[in-house]
Design a protein that fits this description.
Protein name: Adaptin N terminal region-domain-containing protein
Number of helices: 40
Structural class: mainly alpha
CATH architecture of the largest domain: Alpha Horseshoe
Distance between the termini: 67 Å
CATH class of the largest domain: Mainly Alpha
CATH superfamily of the largest domain: Leucine-rich Repeat Variant
Largest sheet: 2 strands, antiparallel
Radius of gyration: 47 Å
Mean pLDDT: 76
Length: 824
């Protein structure tokens, strides 16, 4: 019961503290912005100039809030710069963000914070050191370029990978600040490119791509290491590394090739088996280094980042296009479940891949079906991929799906579906006839959009082989009476005019029908009627017999009845007369042009060339046709008119030896950053006693031959000196001790061993090797200190750190030490 009450009390106290903190924050916000949200600059300055870190943090948060709203807070620049050396990490972060935003505008005042930022480069916290180099390189003031170089030079050899990564980013910023330091920065970047941490390599490669992408020779010794650590690099770093390695391979690694190899057979007794052995098969062989890269990149197809997946696809498509790339289909199809923006980018890349290999996505056609929730652009891309992946084996599935889309109420979807059917008709003549039969049925549809698009596609199909579709033109001429859509009527009349030279019995009758309702037709239809009349009249002039002129002197003309004019002449004059008085300027000009060409016999060849010229066979290319020059994943596939400017280099005909890619062992990076002070941990009691005894042994090592002859009382006096007790020793005695030290070295070493054996116990012998090495190093440091000390300190040189430790021990331990010495 008591425990439950205490827990409840603790909960209430915690809630009280949180409430008080919230109230304090509300008071601070009210003090700065007021209850109505009004801005109080004086209060912000007061908080920034406060001695308390919490109040400084409140002031910086207020400035960050104003910055997010788009307000100009440059008036607080001097007050903010004062806090660049704040003790709180949160305050420093906000100050650095402010400096990055306004340092270029207030370059003179920004220089006041350089000293504080430079001091932060030596801070014990790696995050502060990383932030310092980021801010130092982000201040775009040309006068601090040398200081930035010094900061980068110090950061690239830092112990923390966080700081080295920040240095990699800072190199790119320093290059933008002053491009004359390129060679120096490239040297720093080479150090980071060889870093063992994958956390650093990603940022270093991104800087390399932006600063010196053509210096691929710097990657020779790092190539295989990058392949091994590729899976560990961050996602956006993987994109840069994959692109860089793709370019490197095309220059320095040999291209994969097909090699003929003999078939192996276990049995060759029969003659047929011997013939089979002689046969050869082709096998795709690639370089081991290229194979290493492909093996390392293939697992990245399962990455959650779509950019990484596209980078891997680009790598395989650029390096081994001849190989079987069917495994690239599922990862790309998987990305179609992402948001619409990613879907559009992925579909644009899939369309280019389908142009290069239409069988790549044939097994996944159902994933490209259009959904009602798809945007028009995504629907257009999906329909394009369906038509590009269409073949004679899958045409039934694709056409049925496109015909369903053509009956939709969405005008955009209807137009794209009918155009896609026209692209499918280009596969073969059988498919073209099948598409034409369905399109002819749509002429009588009530949807004018469907009728117009269908007739446009019919015109394309007929033009592929005009002589095979004379009957189709006759059917279209009969459908002209029931067609009401202006675009449909104009298309039918144009087709009849194209066949005027083949089907002579169709065009004159169609022109006669159109002349009756000429005034009620749409302008586009009127233009096609005028064009049809001009084509027919040009054929009529060409076939009209030339009458010979008779001389008046030979024969006397007799009055005869003038025969009636030819119906074609009358029909042409009638159409031209109707067009002459039409309200359309374009129509009147067009009629005047045709009439002037056909009026005089001298211009008849020109009219024939203009009106009877054969039209080339139409080609309805895919919307993505011509984008194969862009790399997979580049912006040129998505944005029209955008050129990436960095095409892939061609394969090199002569590649260097693979030994240039052998890794070079790099020594450990020296640590320039300050390290925290070493804290000595206390050991168990047995180790402490052993350490104290070895201190006694160390003192014995320094005992001179002359002191061995001393009495026990004199010896105890010397031991008191060792433990720090005052002893009066003359300068002459000290000189005698120094002379005797050189005489007895071998005897001392033997006595040292004997003493060590006597004082060591079984438990002490089980100490680890690491403890013994530390003690030996401490002893060596003490000996060096003895040799470098003055004569006054030579009597006490064996004490140093061991003396400070033994002074804190009990008197019993001291007595034990003296007893040990007397026992010797």
């Amino acid at each position: 019961m008591a425990e439950s009450l205490s827990k409840i009390t603790a909960v209430f106290e915690t809630a009280k503290e949180l409430t008080m903190e919230a109230a304090a924050s509300a008071r601070n916000a009210t003090a700065i912005f007021g209850e109505d949200g009004s801005f109080r600059p004086r209060d912000v300055q007061r908080y920034l100039n406060s001695r308390h870190e919490k109040e400084k943090l409140v002031g910086m948060k207020a400035i960050a809030t104003l910055m997010s709203k788009g307000d100009d807070v440059t008036e607080f620049f001097p007050d903010v710069v004062k806090n660049s050396a704040a003790q709180t990490l949160e305050v420093r972060k906000l100050v650095y963000i402010y400096l990055l935003r306004y340092a270029q505008q207030e370059s003179d005042l920004a220089l006041l914070s350089i000293n504080a930022i430079q001091k932060s480069l030596g801070d014990q916290n790696p995050q502060i050191r990383a932030m310092a180099i980021k801010v130092l390189s982000g201040i775009k003031v040309p006068s601090i370029a040398p200081i930035v170089l010094l900061g980068i030079r110090k950061s690239i050899v830092d112990m923390s990978s966080v700081v080295r990564r920040a240095a990699a980013v800072a190199i790119g910023k320093a290059y933008e600040l002053d491009k004359s330091n390129l060679e120096t920065l490239v040297g720093y970047l080479a150090t980071l490119l060889g870093d063992k941490s994958f956390y650093v390599v990603g940022s270093a490669v991104q800087t390399f791509v932006n600063m010196c992408p053509d210096r691929l020779d710097m990657l020779h010794t790092n190539y295989r290491r990058y392949c091994n650590m590729l899976a560990d690099i961050e996602e956006w770093g993987q994109v840069c590394v994959l692109d860089m390695l793709t370019r490197y391979v095309r220059i320095y690694v040999s291209k994969g090739r097909m090699v003929k190899k003999p078939n192996e057979s276990f049995y060759s007794d029969d003659e047929e088996d011997e013939k089979e052995v002689e046969k050869e098969h082709e096998e795709f062989v690639i370089d081991p280094d290229l194979e290493m890269l492909l093996a390392a990149a293939k697992p990245l197809l399962q990455s959650r980042n779509s950019a990484v997946v596209l980078a891997v696809v680009n790598l395989f498509n650029a390096l081994v296009p001849e190989a079987d790339l069917s495994f690239l289909g599922p990862p790309l199809v998987r990305l179609l479940s992402r948001p619409s923006e990613i879907q559009y980018v992925v579909l644009s890349n899939i369309a280019v891949l389908a142009i290069q290999n239409n069988d790549l996505f044939a097994p996944y056609l159902k994933y490209f079906y259009v959904f009602p929730s798809d945007t028009p652009e995504i629907a257009k891309r999906k329909i394009e991929v369906l038509t590009l992946s269409c073949s004679e084996s899958t045409v039934s599935e694709v056409l049925s799906e496109l015909q369903y889309y053509a009956t939709s109420v969405d005008k955009f979807l209807v137009a794209e579906a009918v155009r896609a059917i026209g692209r499918c008709a280009q596969i073969s003549n059988d498919i073209a006839r099948r598409c034409l039969r369905w399109l002819l049925k749509q002429i009588h549809s009530a949807d004018p959009n469907l009728v117009g698009e269908s007739l446009t596609v019919i015109r394309y199909i007929i033009q592929l082989s005009p002589k095979d579709h004379v009957k189709t033109v006759a059917k279209l001429a009969l459908a002209l009476d029931s067609a009401t859509v202006p675009l449909a009527r104009a298309s039918i009349i144009w087709l009849v005019g194209e066949f005027a030279g083949i089907a002579r019995y169709i065009a004159p009758d169609v022109l006669r029908k159109c002349a009756k309702g000429f005034m009620d037709e749409d302008e586009s239809t009127k233009l096609q009627i005028v064009l049809l009349s001009a084509k027919l009249y040009s054929y009529y002039i060409e076939e009209k017999p030339v009458q010979e002129e008779k001389d008046d002197t030979d024969e006397q003309l007799e009055p005869t009845i003038k025969p009636s004019a030819d119906p074609m002449d009358l029909l042409f004059d009638y159409i031209m007369l109707l067009a002459r008085y039409d309200t359309s300027y374009d129509l009147r000009d067009r009629a005047r042009l045709y009439k002037s060409l056909l009026a005089s016999p001298s211009s008849t060849p020109l009219a024939k060339l203009l009106l009877q010229a054969p039209k080339p066979s139409p080609h309805a290319p895919s919307p993505s046709q011509g984008k194969e020059k862009f790399l997979i994943g580049s912006s040129g596939l998505v944005c029209a008119g955008v050129n990436d400017g960095r095409p892939l280099p061609p394969w090199s005909s002569e590649t260097p030896d693979a030994s240039i890619r052998d890794e070079v062992k790099v020594e450990e990076t020296p640590v320039l950053a300050p390290l925290p002070k070493k804290v000595k941990t206390k050991t168990n009691k047995a180790k402490k006693e052993t350490k104290k005894k070895k201190v006694v042994v160390e003192k014995i090592k320094n005992v001179k031959s002359k002191t061995v002859k001393k009495t026990e009382e004199d010896f105890h006096t010397t031991l008191d000196e060792f433990f720090g007790e005052p002893a009066a020793t003359s300068a002459q005695a000290q000189e005698d001790e120094e002379e005797s030290e050189e005489v007895v070295e071998e005897e001392e070493s033997e006595s040292e061993v004997e003493v060590i054996v006597e004082v060591s116990d079984d438990s002490e012998e089980e100490d680890s090797e690491e403890d013994s090495e530390e003690e030996i190093s401490e002893d060596e440091d003490e000996n060096e200190a003895e040799d470098g000390g003055s004569e006054e300190e030579s009597g006490e040189s064996g004490i140093d750190e061991e003396e400070s430790e033994t002074e804190d021990e009990d008197d019993d331990d001291d007595a034990a030490g003296r007893g040990l010495l007397s026992g010797q």
